[in-house]
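## Example record

The block below lists the input lines for one assembly entry, exactly as stored, with component labels intact.
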Amino acid sequence: MKRIAIQTDDFDISAELAALEALGGGGVASFTGIVRGEDGLVALELEHYPAMTQIQVERIAQEAMARWPLIGLSIIHRHGRLIPGERIVFVGTASRHRGAALESCAFLIDWLKSRAPFWKKAHYADGAGNWVASRAEDEAKAQDWDR
Amino acid sequence: MKRIAIQTDDFDISAELAALEALGGGGVASFTGIVRGEDGLVALELEHYPAMTQIQVERIAQEAMARWPLIGLSIIHRHGRLIPGERIVFVGTASRHRGAALESCAFLIDWLKSRAPFWKKAHYADGAGNWVASRAEDEAKAQDWDR
Amino acid sequence: MAAVTLVYFAWVREAIGRDEERVDLVSPDETIGELVTRLAARGGGYAEALADPDRLRAALDQQFVGFDQAIGTARELALFPPVTGG
Amino acid sequence: MAAVTLVYFAWVREAIGRDEERVDLVSPDETIGELVTRLAARGGGYAEALADPDRLRAALDQQFVGFDQAIGTARELALFPPVTGG
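Predicted structure tokens for the full assembly:
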């Protein structure tokens, strides 16, 4: 099972996890990213490059399936305007091996952070809007997986 | 938030995750272990040492909170008779840092595997029942965290 | 005389045929290993369960301990196979 | 004459004030770096967005590439800041 969705709408995590659990692998790992409302942030606007996003996420998913013995994988990434507390991204993995499920989940979220063509603009209560700068730390984490 | 439950009943993963998401940390990781129906297994019977389980799991949770900047943690471990497809264990962690959430989740499940006083008996279709042997690999994984 | 409550789990419990019993100690200095050897000498299910200490783990008052640990004034000694949780 | 469709994202798009445009190439050998320098020379929002290539990333036909890559017969060249997904 491999499910990839790039969408504006929220999603049902329990449905995603139930689908992964039903595969019979014994282990399901997940990571969910949520908008933090720090520093007066009122909304996060996510822009993406649709023609490229699908290709890149598909490639990252294939890479994970090749590196770990996964029996299922689900990646959901939202775009558009999101307010604090809303989910941005979900990665779920299923495997017979808990290590494979957890590691591939970390791998996928690290790659989404530094290789998926999304850009975040932070909107503040005072009306200011800033494009979020990429973090060298995120790039380093993605590169760690290349070793 | 720290929630520990040792129980016979199934649990609602979406409620656990929603509680962790609501903490505002930005990142929630989870691992769910499910009974596999391999080799003609019809049920898994989990016995535990109640007086010790609560103490050990509490200690493991404290250790995780000390090692990673977690803002929430949820551990649920079932005992009793479970059939293939049923959930055995859930670990959920919340943090501002995705690495902390994912690593502490891996740490907790590795420790539950080799340090929580549970024993599994596998019941097969032919009537045979075998106590599941511990795996050296699980012990090694738990020891890796001591380094 | 010093005594301790023994609790058994998994196949140790099944072989011995009970989940709990009270046992007098030779002295508070008696180690878990010495007590296990003494119990195994009872034969039958005790021998089956306890003859090979390498297959066993112990917890004294709910804390994992080694077999060279003296039982002292502990209230509860648990004997069981390596755990298989998670 | 060879041409390519440029697509812009995030603050690159905002500074330039459009999300897409068609641009003729000097030759198919023209690299992304050379084209970016040529566009920055237009001044205004182009200069603002493109004057410092170190702040930019590029994708040619939806694949990440370096700025020394020749544009060749590619159909679409995307210019954008480092990504911040996840």
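DSSP finds three helices and five strands in chain C. Helices of chain C lie at 10-16, 32-40, 44-50.
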